[in-house]
Amino acid sequence: xxxxxxxxxxxxxxxxxxxxxxxxxxxLNVVDMVVWDKEKIGLGYRTRHRSEFCVVIQKEPRRAKxxxxxxxxxxxxxxxxxx
Length: 83
Description:
The protein is mainly beta. It has 1 helix and 3 strands; from the N terminus they run βαββ. The protein has one helix at residues 12-16, and strands spanning 5-10, 28-37, 51-59. It has a 3-stranded antiparallel beta sheet. The protein is flat, with a radius of gyration of 14 Å.
C-alpha cells in the first residue's frame, strides 16, 4: 500500500544498536518514534527501563499530509496517562 505505516516496538538495546540495518534493501524509512512512559520500572540487564519505544516506519514515498490523519497520539510523559 502506498504511504503505508508500520509500528515497530523496539527495546532500548536495539534502538541503540542501529536497528535500521533491518530496513536495508527495502523501501521503508523511519519517520517518527513514540516514547511510551510506563510509569513503573521494568526489567533490564544494566538499567531498569521505565519506557518503551515504538518506531514509526513508512513505505516510500514518505508523506504525512493527507495520510497521517490521527493527531491525538501523545509522546513522552503524557503517553502513559489514560484520558
